[in-house]
Write a structure and sequence with these properties.
single chain, mainly beta, 8-stranded mixed beta sheet, 1 helix, 17 strands, 32% strand
C-alpha cells in the first residue's frame, strides 16, 4: 500500500503498483439504520409492533402501515415515539389494537391524532405530555386506558366508549375538560 485517503466519505487505497481500490464508505454516520423512520419487531403472535427509528426525529408526520413483510402491524411498542419533538401528526392504521406504555410521551407538538376503530387498549402514560392534543375520541373497541394515559395534555373534549371496563388512576386530567361523556360501564 502506497497511500490511503478518504475522498467524499469513502476509503481509497492506492497500491505501490499505481492501482487503486475504493473500499466504500466509512464513518459517515448515514447508514440505513440512521435514516430509518420506522422499526418493526416480530411478536410471538406472528404480528409486528412498530417504533421510531433514528430518522423519525427529523420528520413531522408519520404514517404507520397496516402490514409489514406480509404480516399485520398490531401494536405500537412501549416508548415507541417518545420525545419526538417535531412530530405533529401520526396516522395509525385499523390493524393497531394496542398502544404501549409511554408510546407518545412528551411529543409536545403532536396534535393531529385519530385512534383506529380496532384499538383495544391504551397503556399508561401513552399520550402524557402531549400538550398540543385538545380533543380525543376513544374508539368503541377500547376496553382499557392506563394510568396517566392523557395526563398533561390540553384535552378540552373527550369521548369515552361504553365498552370501557378499566381506567387507570389519573388517566384523564380534567383541568381543561369542557366536555366529557362517561359510560355507565365505569
Amino acid at each position: 500500500i502506497s497511500k490511503m485517503e478518504i475522498v467524499n466519505g469513502e476509503l481509497i487505497v492506492t497500491y505501490t503498483d499505481g492501482t487503486t481500490d475504493n473500499l466504500g464508505s466509512i464513518g459517515s454516520g448515514t447508514s440505513t439504520e440512521d435514516k430509518e423512520i420506522l422499526i418493526f419487531t416480530l411478536l410471538s403472535d406472528d404480528t409486528y409492533s412498530v417504533s421510531a427509528g433514528n430518522g423519525a426525529k427529523n420528520v413531522d408526520s408519520i404514517e404507520i402501515p397496516s402490514t409489514y413483510n406480509g404480516k399485520a402491524v398490531t401494536q405500537i411498542a412501549d416508548k415507541a415515539f417518545m420525545n419526538l419533538s417535531n412530530l405533529t401528526k401520526i396516522t395509525i392504521p385499523d390493524s393497531i389494537t394496542k398502544i404501549g406504555e409511554y408510546a407518545f410521551y412528551d411529543c409536545t407538538l403532536l396534535s393531529n391524532i385519530i385512534l383506529p376503530s380496532s384499538l383495544q387498549s391504551i397503556q399508561k402514560y401513552a399520550f402524557s405530555g402531549c400538550t398540543s392534543i385538545t380533543e380525543i375520541t376513544i374508539p368503541s373497541a377500547t376496553t382499557y386506558i392506563g394510568e396517566y394515559a392523557f395526563c398533561s395534555t390540553n384535552c378540552r373534549a373527550i369521548d369515552l366508549p361504553s365498552t370501557l371496563t378499566g381506567i387507570g388512576y389519573n388517566s384523564l386530567v380534567l383541568d381543561n375538560i369542557t366536555s366529557i361523556e362517561i359510560p355507565q360501564s365505569l
